[in-house]
Each structure stands twice: as structure tokens, then as C-alpha cells.
């Protein structure tokens, strides 16, 4: 039975709480941003939430007792105050600022009325002090200190009323001197309380503003971090496209140790090593010569100058097959280490083709030499002999047709030899600009 009543009471309280919050509290549109205005609104909502049911503690006995004693004004004022607060505060047609101002004004009027009606410093002063605290928690500094000034005006006016007796109020029974004693202490206490509340609220407001700024900065930092992560992902995508998925063999190696730091798939396919094998090796393991000291000197020089290099050298695969490659190196930082990014191009076929052309050129040079020095020498002697025969006295007795035919044939042969020599010289320039000279390959670099 008790549990059932408890559950019913919790249900009723929760329904009432939801109703009051929905009628007064305006949810903030920005989640996570709760400034001092938000907490003032929550404070006002909670004040109304708890004041309405707990006000019955004072409302019921005061109405009954004052009515029985013939103080009919007190029940009327109590009813008007309670229902005015309910009607105005729970009516969403009025702005929140208006509802706050209405409650403050109503409580001020109630405090002044009780002081004048009962002619007592106690109960009315409690209401006015409560209103001052209420204002300090709900409004800005200008309004708060205005309420303190208003209290000085109210109690100063009542002191003048007691002194001069303009109206027939019950408060006139006080001695002016004692009233000043009471009110001065009250106003002192009121001022101290309000000032301290304002200091606390001001500190809280500054803290909330600081936290709000930190939240904004954090959100900005998070957005920047998200952008950086997106850029990093984009960079990683480009890296995979440009390095890992590049059809040309590429790798990164440590300048100090010559150890491979990273290789792409094309390198593993071309050289026959797995990625794990590559990362346990150095560039010395794929070179076909042993000029490592010279290589390290070149690397240190390029590291100091921070320049790129391009050259041709000879590499070997896992099965020992050697081939020529064109190597392009660029200095980079890789995981905090001085490294070199290398891209290679297999030019072995081009080198072999160039060498074949060189061999053919050498043969043509030999042919040209033979033509110009070996063949043409006896030919020149034959030309001389035919000329001697023609110049010898009595050559008319010989067959002139035979002599002329021999002379013509020898000259034609001489012209052919000269043409061969000339054509050979035309196709054998000293240096062709588009052909790689295999003799100029520098195998001391990588």
C-alpha cells in the first residue's frame, strides 16, 4: 500500500514538474552552450516549481488565522498573490522577462503591504530581503544594485512616515530612533548579502564564459583536426597512388645506414624480393659493384646540399641477373630520419641496343678504314699503271679499246670506293645526342 502511494506520488510530482518546466523553461537551441542566462532561467523555473506547492505551508494557516481574527485583507491579498503568480508565471503568452519582473514587483508590494498593515518590522522585511536575493540571482548588476537603492528609499520613506505621521499606518507605533536602528542593520545586512551574491554570480559568469570560450576553441580545434585528418587521408591516398601503386620500382632508404625503409610493389616484382626481405636489406645488396665508400661520400655531399641527383648504374635481381637502370634520387625526411626517395627506370634494353649500334659503328669504321687505306691503295696503283700504259710510246699498236675499257673500269671502281668512304663518314658522327654512350655510365652512384 505504501509503495503504491509512493509510486503514485512520484508519478504526480513528475507530471507536475514536466508541466512547469514546459510552461516556463525555454530549451537552449545550442547543445552544450549553457551561459549564465540559461542558469538564471533554470533558477526561476525551479523557484516557481517548488514555491507553488510549498507556499501552502504559509498560505493555509495565515489565511485561516487572519480570517478568524477579522484581518480580512490578509486572505484577500494572499489569494490574489498566489493566483496572480500561477496565472502569469505559467502562461507562455508572456515573455520570460515580463514574468520575472511581475514576480519581483508582486513580492515587493507584498512585503511593503505586510510591513504597513501589521506595523511590524519582521515579516514584511523578510519578504523584501528575499526579493533582493531573488533579484540578485535573476538579473544583471544594474537591476540588483537598483533594488538595494530601492530598499534604502522604502525604509527611508517609512522612517519619515514614522517621524511625521502623514498616514494612519500601524507602523507609526515605532519609535523613529529604534526604526533607524532596525533598518540600518537590515540595510547593512541586505547590502553585504547582495554584494557577495553578485561577486559569486560574477565569478560564475566569468567561469561560464571562459568555459564557453574553451568549448568554442575546442570545437574549432576538433574541426581543424578533422580537416587535417581528411587532408592526411587524402595525402595517404595520393601517396598510395604515387608511391605504392606506381608502376616504376621505388623505395626509400636511410642515408646513414643505406637500409631500405619502404618499397613499393613494382620493386618487389622487378627485383624478386618480398617486402619483408627488402626491409632487412640495404642498397648494397642490389648493386652489382662494391664502390660503397664512394657512394656514401656522394650521398653525404647531396645531403649537405639538399639536392636531387640523376644517374645510371647497374643493379641485380634476387636470382643474380644484372641490368642497367636510370636512378632519380630526392632527399626527404622519413619518420624523423634523413632518407632518399628513389625511382628507377629499367634501361637495360636501351643500353644493349646502344652497345649494338656502337659495335656496328665500329665495324663500319673498320670497313671505311679498309676502303680508304687497304682497297684504295692498290686501286690507286692500278690507276697509275693504266695511265703509264696510255702514256708509253707505241701504245697505239696495242688494242685501244681494251686499254680504254680498263681505264674506265678502274675509274668507276675508284668512284665507288670514294662514295663508300663518304657515306661511311656521314653515318659515323663523333657523338650522337640522343644515344646513351655505354662507356659513359657512372656506376659509382645510386
TrEMBL record:
GO biological process, alphabetically ordered: osmosensory signaling via phosphorelay pathway
Catalytic activity: ATP + protein L-histidine = ADP + protein N-phospho-L-histidine
One GO molecular-function entry: phosphorelay response regulator activity
SUPFAM superfamilies: Homodimeric domain of signal transducing histidine kinase (SSF47384), PYP-like sensor domain (PAS domain) (SSF55785)
EC main group: transferase
GO cellular component, one term: membrane
Keyword Transferase on entry: yes
Transmembrane segments: 43-65, 71-90, 97-117, 123-141, 148-167, 179-201
Record CDD domains: HisKA, PAS
Domain PAS, residue spans: 235-306
EC numbers, comma separated: 2.7.13.3
This protein's UniProt keywords: Kinase, Membrane, Transferase, Transmembrane, Transmembrane helix
UniProt superkingdom: Bacteria
NCBIfam families in the cross-refs: sensory_box
Database matches in PANTHER family: BACTERIOPHYTOCHROME, TWO-COMPONENT HISTIDINE KINASE
Protein name: histidine kinase
Lineage: Bacteria, Pseudomonadati, Bacteroidota, Sphingobacteriia, Sphingobacteriales
